[in-house]
Amino acid sequence: MAKRVAIVGAGVSGLASIRCCLEGGLEPTCFERSDDLGGLWRFTEHVEEGRASLYKSVVSNSCKEMSCYSDFPFPEDYPNYVPNSQFLEYLRMYANQFNLLKCIRFKTEVCRVTKRPDFTVTGQWEVVTRHEGKQESAIFDAIMVCTGFLTNPHLPLNSFPGINTFEGQYFHSRQYKHPDIFKDKNVLVIGVGNSGTDIAVEASHVAKKVFLSTTGGAWVMSRVSESGLPWDMLFMTRFHNMLRNSLPTPVVTWWMSRKINSWFNHANYGLAPEDRTQMKEPVINDELPGRIITGKVLIKPSIKEVKKNSVIFNYTPKEQPIDIIVFATGYTFAFPFLDETVVKVEDGQASLYKYIFPAHLEKPTLAVIGLIKPLGSMIPTGETQARWAVQVLKGVNKLPPRSVMIEEVNARKENRPSGNC
After folding, report:
1. pLDDT greater than 90 at residue 250
2. Residue 316 contacts by C-beta under 8 Å, 6 or more apart in sequence?
3. For residue 215, what are the CA distances in angstroms to 110, 212, 355, 373, 392?
4. Where are the alpha helices (DSSP H) in 98-151?
5. Nearest-CA neighbor of 71 among 94, 41, 88?
6. What is the C-alpha to C-alpha distance for residues 197 and 270, in angstroms, rounded to an integer?
7. Can you list the positions of beta strands (E) in 76-133?
């Protein structure tokens, strides 16, 4: 009899997990709390609880050639970088092509996932779900958690003295949908990640003034790279990967900064990363340097104090009038349906072997798929994770002893700054 697998979430990693389970002869049931698939890639005018939220203008940061499922390329008439509406259409086509919808139960929230009393022998789980107000319970042989990490906004208000006195509007970037709200306003965006730079650039077309505040800087790259080719087709080759993994860190850092600065010198634009030893995910934005050089976006340091209608930045005593503050300060992640002893989260990091399996579990029957920030697209990464996880769930591949896995997790924690998964 086929092993029954509960999959939580029907986004890009959830769909890949269903497909890998079916291919591996397992019996998947996917629970999706909203009424449709797509996860992050399904735009809605309103923010939905428990689901990633995107703004109207989002376009993929990885080109279609590098972003597709391994056996299902994007249609040829799609642009190289795909707008969110077309990306969602692609996910629908994928689900239909491989008959995945039959395995998805929509409008079904996973309330609780707990070990069965005989877990140490069977590795089984009890899953409690809620559909249209009615709770159900079922037993599964394995769990694949595909909820991602873009649902719980990180809003560190305590780090901004005076924010409680601010009389303007402030919100997390998760709430942002359209630039109209910025018309003729003085806007401050805090955080130079992909969302922060996108929002600052969009605001700069309609706002009176836009400030972009950064504490540590960032490398910014354009989607259009050498000879007009997509950046990741040149940057994500096996040769480049071999170089990054084999050369000493200072050499890699020097080479990367030289390459990225060839577009524009980040130091001249106030964007040079302070910590160059940690090669974080670069920011992809085609317009930012053009908006900075024309004065439409003003780069500022961190905030010293927020006042009623203005802010004071560090190292610059002059007050700047502000009407709207957008906190593009990232996300935390949690598994509200899991007991915290199942997946331990400390300092923003989960104790997962190879980012997938809880290192301390007696039986390797729970896998977390897609809780990783790859340099490049999530789709092939999530699919590869799901494929390996299915082999482990089937017993074809074996994990090392728990002590070895815990050692690997601890070593990674020591080498990584907190706040990353």
Report:
1. no
2. 300, 301
3. 38, 10, 28, 21, 42
4. 119-122
5. 94
6. 14
7. 104-105, 108-115, 125-131
Q: How far apart are alpha carbons 153 and 78 in whole angstroms?
A: 32
| Domains by residue range for the chain, with CATH | 4-151+331-415 (3.50.50.60), 155-327 (3.50.50.60)
Task: Please report, rounded to a whole number, the percentage of residues in the chain having pLDDT higher than 70.
Answer: 97
- For 97, other C-beta atoms within 10 Å of its C-beta total 12
**Closest Cα partner for 200 from 300, 87, 278?**
300
Nearest to 42 by CA among 83, 74, 14: 83
Convert the pLDDT of each residue in 82-135 to its tens digit.
999 999 999 999 999 999 999 999 999 999 999 999 999 999 999 999 999 999
pLDDT digits (tens, 9 = 90+) for 175-210: 999 999 999 999 999 999 999 999 999 999 999 999
Which pair of structure tokens corresponds to residue 249? 């860190």
Backbone angles phi, psi at 18, to 5 degrees: -60, -50
Whole-Å CA distances, 323 to 186, 198, 326: 5, 19, 10
* C-alpha to C-alpha distance for 267 and 235, rounded to whole angstroms: 22
Torsion angle (degrees, nearest 10) of CA 47, 53, 56, 59: 180
What is the per-residue pLDDT across 29-79, written as a single tens digit (0 to 9) for each? Answer: 999 999 999 999 999 999 988 888 999 999 999 999 999 999 999 999 999
Residue entry with tokens 């957008």 = 326
Query: What are the DSSP E strand ranges found in 132-225?
Result: 134-140, 142-145, 152-153, 169-172, 186-190, 209-213, 220-221
Nearest C-alpha neighbor of 173 from the set 154, 201, 146: 154
